[in-house]
## 1
Amino acid sequence: MLTLRPVDALAAIAEPRRREILRMVSLAELSAGEIARRFDVTRPAISQHLRVLKEANLVSERKSGTKRLYRARPETIAELRAYLEDFWDASLRTLKAAAEQEEQRRSRHGRRHESH
Amino acid sequence: MLTLRPVDALAAIAEPRRREILRMVSLAELSAGEIARRFDVTRPAISQHLRVLKEANLVSERKSGTKRLYRARPETIAELRAYLEDFWDASLRTLKAAAEQEEQRRSRHGRRHESH
DNA sequence: CACTTACGTAAGTCTATGCTTACGCTTCGT
DNA sequence: ACGAAGCGTAAGCATAGACTTACGTAAGTG
């Protein structure tokens, strides 16, 4: 039952600041304020980034007193990774196959092809 | 001498349509028109996507007569893949380490921690 | 019960971006 | 030389999105 597709996570990761945030909450569980202090932007901006990451299931949230602690979710990261692995594999495999075919064609008849 | 960072390629890939285009030009060298015909958008829109992909070095362009043929560039795809591999590795490794530390703490003293 | 701390959210702004139509440039066929 | 084919680019538009300030809320503190 996976309603969120890896694609949402990919879009979330495309943002440099969110990538940085995800790195931070991979190293340690952090509060929104702690994260915001390490950036030049205001705290609400970070809250909004955290919401995107949370909606993409890339981070989990836990309340502790007045704070909210965020941490990266390895499962979703692994899913996104797998999704992209398939993407790379499909691309690179077919590219390699195409290059080899071309190489064969080139060597079979000595004249250069595709002059059209 | 790599002026273009993998990050640009990542942003390019974040767009669903561009991911689809990249898949297509991995399977076969295609002209802009051929690509556009497979989408519901106009040809200029595809041209603009192709420009983004080209600037990210994800596709190469070759002129043949009045056409321009596009093809995925395996090198850049591999670079982006490597960049992300590092990202996953760093995230997942530290997450695993943190989880283990926590597990140790939890088992060392029987009571639950972090009540604050 | 105030007051403070630590937040999220709403509203508004500015920029980026994905799209369209209009146009101009090459290259090929005749 | 001329029209058509195949593109890229410019300009304009509408939407998304990354910010800001202002405000509201829940949980500790005195």
Note: The helical segments of chain A are 6-14, 16-27, 32-37, 43-55, 74-108.
## 2
Amino acid sequence: MISPYGMEIVESCLTCKFRADRVFCDLPQSALQTFEEIKYTTAYPEGAVLFVEHQAPRGIFLICRGSVKLSVSAPNGKTMIVKIAEAGEVLGLSATVSGRSYEVTAETIDPCQINFVKREDFLRFLKNDVNVCFKVAEHLSEKYHNVCNEIRCLGLSHSAAEKLAKLLLEWSSKSGESNKAEPRVKLRLTHEEIAQMIGTSRETVTRLLADLKKHQILNSRGSTLVIRNQAALREMANNN
Amino acid sequence: MISPYGMEIVESCLTCKFRADRVFCDLPQSALQTFEEIKYTTAYPEGAVLFVEHQAPRGIFLICRGSVKLSVSAPNGKTMIVKIAEAGEVLGLSATVSGRSYEVTAETIDPCQINFVKREDFLRFLKNDVNVCFKVAEHLSEKYHNVCNEIRCLGLSHSAAEKLAKLLLEWSSKSGESNKAEPRVKLRLTHEEIAQMIGTSRETVTRLLADLKKHQILNSRGSTLVIRNQAALREMANNN
DNA sequence: TTCCCGATGTGATTCAAATCACAAGACCAT
DNA sequence: ATGGTCTTGTGATTTGAATCACATCGGGAA
């Protein structure tokens, strides 16, 4: 089956190829069966808004395919990108569990396939099975852990260069390239968006990247960055 | 019973006066009974370190009395205070559940009474009772929610004045004073520590507070601040 | 192709806040 | 009371990065 946005649909969680290595898809058969029954699968085009911060939680969104940009914004219009979520990740989980409003805005940045589960259904699902509930608690803990690191980054790294270096290293390790001699990072965001991720201005990002290229630490191949001197990047990320 | 550090000991969670209004103490009788059996109650003096970031999780710490400073620090020695936890709060929960290392360092800032539960005991406790497990998931969600707000604060508010204003308002609302005409906030931290909470320098905090006093927005009575113009503070916190 | 608009690159200028460098209080212990 | 140590107050200086202001590039639509 092919969706209107030109990608293959994953029919069932039971046979999804991400099952093995994704946090939330990794449930016992029986639970997964129940999950199948309460989920709604939808395909979204690029730029679709799944939910908006401060909305009351409608339920959870499980990304099967594609990536989603999570952002927060201030009354004055400034926005900050919190993270780019990939296939296998669950969005809106904490809001759905606690009943508090969504804390971020979620917008697809490419065509996505997403499973949605209504809040009531999901809560019933949790309360029916300790294993599922524990899994969710575990997952929430990991998310908490990650956000704490985020804070550490934002609060402790005072220079923009440091934050950019950290971001690039994170991206290269996520794509499993960091153990190569010259890891490559595909840039999926504009300089403006990168700036919003590290809390700086667009011009600063442009200048920093130019500097890194000048010093032969980076090199660009179209929209792909080649990290030519990982050690130097690490240096920048840790010190200062 | 009186502890070595001069405070009354809360003998049992079943009779603790915080039970009604605290998140985690609010468990059904049966669960609380089990909790009683696996917990170790300890009294700590001011300045005791409960756990250090990056340590493997030994278990959870439930504050019965006193306050605990949670901080993260960078390799270069800079540290940032994440929050001041009060009676009723649980520390080390996410690390204990997920098995990842503690994400912060916890240090008492006054004499404390704390219940400790070993990781294995706690996990068993969780897995034995869906209600407890769900409660924990709920709690983790709230914590996640709060950290997200933290990020929003750090990342979107660029001026130090704004962050300080936000912090003062938060403190006044926590102490339930914010609905009064002139809320009072007891300063429990030094300027240095306040600076670490909002990611700025000690001198900046001193100067900002002096400014606020000059403009009659604040007023100090010893170590207590009186917020004389809450509207102005709110103004500072939201805009800019 | 040509036009157009969004993304980049780069200088010049401005500004908030870090840093440095002391002075003056505040508080504790002897 | 006296000395010592930690906290607070304040000036002077420096600086990283925001902001402003354009020039240029590049890719999609007509």
Note: Residues 158-161, 200-201, 203-204, 207 of chain A lie near DNA strand D (CB under 10 Å from a C1').
## 3
Amino acid sequence: MSLPHPTADQISLPIVLAVLGDPTRLAIVRYLARKEGVPMNCSKFLDLASKTNLSYHLAKLREAGVTRSEAAGTSRLITLRRDDLDKRFPGLLDSVIAAADGDKDLPAVGTSEIEVSA
Amino acid sequence: MSLPHPTADQISLPIVLAVLGDPTRLAIVRYLARKEGVPMNCSKFLDLASKTNLSYHLAKLREAGVTRSEAAGTSRLITLRRDDLDKRFPGLLDSVIAAADGDKDLPAVGTSEIEVSA
DNA sequence: CCAATTGTTCAATAACTTTTGAACTAAGGA
DNA sequence: TCCTTAGTTCAAAAGTTATTGAACAATTGG
């Protein structure tokens, strides 16, 4: 069973901007962008907010079309929908992430991480 | 007398994104971008919202550092702070405006305009 | 000076968003 | 089967943002 996601052409610019205009969600997106290709589970983000609140923010990101969440056992694998976002809004995600990377006042996750091999 | 504006380095990414994540404000910014260099007064935007509501949205844009408002007699001249935004968040404004231009569902102002010389 | 034009402020309300905790579901391992 | 892990759902509370109308201020033209 997979959760509802908008199709690429249903992704709306004002909704994406509004969703990214929240520091917690921006931190999540930033982290997903840095670990692109590696699907994340929610527990990665527990230092940003409570479990319940994370569920809320991750649902917002998914409903806006910014992320994709797939069920995998008891976990959820979360990925950035970069392909769809780049197609719909060329350059937007890159400039947002670059801007977020340059901002020291933004909350962040896993910025000083030791790469652990599987 | 000029209204309070943030300095370039006070402009915050999440605040800018949240402010642009409103269709009325996006329409204003889009119009300012198309008429860049030409300072606009508020009456240009009266088909987007009521006078009072416009005052509110224009204040949000100004406080976020997206626009500059200068008093000029009984009018206010509103311009995009493109220089400051481009310095702080390279590429962001361009990709937002390009994305907005490609979206037919967004409210717009003056898209079919006859150029009137002064 | 008077009236019109341009826009602001204020208070109220409506509408949304965020956060919370408790209760829940579903999968997987012992 | 029972327990743990991972995450959702729900309802309530808190907080924030958007919209409105009426009243206000400042400038300009007659």
Note: The helical segments of chain A are 13-20, 23-34, 51-64, 82-88, 92-101.
## 4
Amino acid sequence: MKMTPLITSAVMHFGEMGSRWGFNRTVGQILALIVLNEEPISAQEIADALNISRGNTSMGLKELQSWRLVKQHLVPGERKEFFIPAGDIWTLANRVFEERRKREIDPTLSLLRDLLLDEPANGTEAGAQNKLNEIHDLLESITAWSEELQNLGPEKLNTLMKLGSGVGRMLDLKDKILPGKNSVN
Amino acid sequence: MKMTPLITSAVMHFGEMGSRWGFNRTVGQILALIVLNEEPISAQEIADALNISRGNTSMGLKELQSWRLVKQHLVPGERKEFFIPAGDIWTLANRVFEERRKREIDPTLSLLRDLLLDEPANGTEAGAQNKLNEIHDLLESITAWSEELQNLGPEKLNTLMKLGSGVGRMLDLKDKILPGKNSVN
DNA sequence: TTAAACTTTCAGTAATTTCTGAAACTTCAA
DNA sequence: TTGAAGTTTCAGAAATTACTGAAAGTTTAA
């Protein structure tokens, strides 16, 4: 595992950004290293390349596996475990979205559902509940929509993204194309 | 400013989630309080309701203003400043997306652009650059797409989201509807 | 101008998160 | 079974991030 200047810059940057993406510095670095490395890489090599303890490496790898971003790769004849990305870039990005949705939206959705079951005790609470209801509906739309996009599959999703402003024009025409169904207002 | 049990639960939860959404506990709590409160609320009232120092409140409000999530509201005849949400729930969600994109994607995009300008020094670097290029393209698509969705406006965006699986069928037909333009492949 | 009413800043402290490294654990070959 | 080669765990240390509160700053009214 040779850390060329290019790879070093990228790895360091992914470390910096790590915390903004939902994991910590070393987890970000480990991910970058595994993705950018052509060959499977062992935990010890990672620890050496990044100058971090073996323990930290182990925990980082565990976390990345819980995010389903990296997976183990058994090399025949080798005792130790090697790691590789859990899929192509597209898949990884999807996984990050999905995991983050689970961590950032789902818990709130569930709390909001609970809070909306209670009868408002007074005018103040009624007003607050209205707001919470709006938030709830919005988060639910986002969740449904993101699931929708997921099972559209990469190719179609790509088509949709590349469509650009065409999507607006298409929406204007949609009632002609998909009569009756799903019409809003 | 009366903290009913309902409002308290919501505010505490938004505090917990704050860090996952890109700001810290008290910033999350302050935001929730301002959104759920019908009337404009002063910094002092916020500090009292949340049991946090006046200084912390001031910094939190500054941060929320930098995210363009809350704004000042001048009450005639009152010396102190009051705060209200910077828009409806929809607007706020949009702002969060936008700010997060700025913090989470833009810096990476800019680094990747730089790294891709360099000539690869060897095979390893060439391979890494390929990956980086894939990541770059993906992030650029996401950025372009999210801008696209933004200036679609709330109504159309809502239509699109509510369209559900219809979007898949629509894509199958798109070449008939928008001949020539934006065709992919 | 003064001072009251309010806001902001920031040095220091507190709380939280991350990391280390030694010990415990696992697996496998001999 | 033993021990070598590896992995994981976790208590405590280090680093980072958030918070307090006193002091400095601002604004307005008299």
Note: Chain A has nine helices and three strands.
